[in-house]
Description:
This protein has about 250 residues and is of the alpha+beta class. The chain has helices spanning about 10-25, 55-65, 85-95, 145-155, 155-160, 195, 215-225; strands at about 35-40, 45-50, 65-70, 75-85, 100-105, 110-120, 125-130, 140-145, 165-170, 185-190, 205-210, 210, 235-240, 250-254. The strands form three sheets. Strands 8, 9, 10, 11, 12, 13 and 14 form a seven-stranded mixed β-sheet that branches. Strands 5-6-3-7 form a four-stranded mixed β-sheet, covered by helices on one side. A three-stranded antiparallel β-sheet has the order 1-2-4, covered by helices on one side. The longest helix is centred in the first third of the chain and has 16 residues, at about 10-25.
Amino acid sequence: MVKIRTVSSSTILFVCLFSAILSFAGVDANHASRIHITINDNTVDVSADNAPFIDVLKKLADKIGFDLIIKDSVDEVVTFDLKSKDLETCLKQLLLRRNYVLTFRKLDDSSVVPKELLLIGTKVPTIYKARPQDTNNADSHMNRADKKWYEKYFSNPDTLSKQIDVQQVRITSETAPPFGAGIQVTRVSEDSAFSQIGIASGDRITAVNGTPVTSRKELINALVHISTEMNPTIIQIERLDENGQLDPVYVQIN
């Protein structure tokens, strides 16, 4: 015997209205419960069960408090479970094989918080603004440069080598990874190309767009061979402050 349960039209109407309200509010009823994010002191737990990747990124951005700019395709469905990861490690695993830039801002107490995540691609950018966070006045460390200017002044390695002096930093227990040793800038010519993009004497630079630098030649080569095809092109210069904490410089080329 087959039992048939009847459902009233008012029940169906209620379910439809409830789903419509969730959709209008920007929440997918089917996916919201599949994403779980817990923020601890210095780490984050993120898990997803067959959830749209874009929903994961949006919820993470909202929880942490950074803006999300997407120029890449993020329409896949994902399942994962990341436990006790710092934000940068978490994003590296989530965005494996993607090009992205994570911009930080510095607070009055010298701590840094994420400001913006840009997924680099060829699509028209889609921007998701995070809910306002209770933060102090911040310095975004973002320098902007014209594409033609950059291509002109970062084209000749011989000329650039005369504008900056560096010395290699020896690795000790204090200078060991995760940031590596890198180089210490000992001189930057006034009004030089380096000073225009925010590099100054005393800076300790460890990488350019994720590529480690251990000499003046490697620093210059990394900057000279930056592709400016993307608009905007973002250069991340990994720099450490006097306490050995990450204090990056960013250059946006338009």
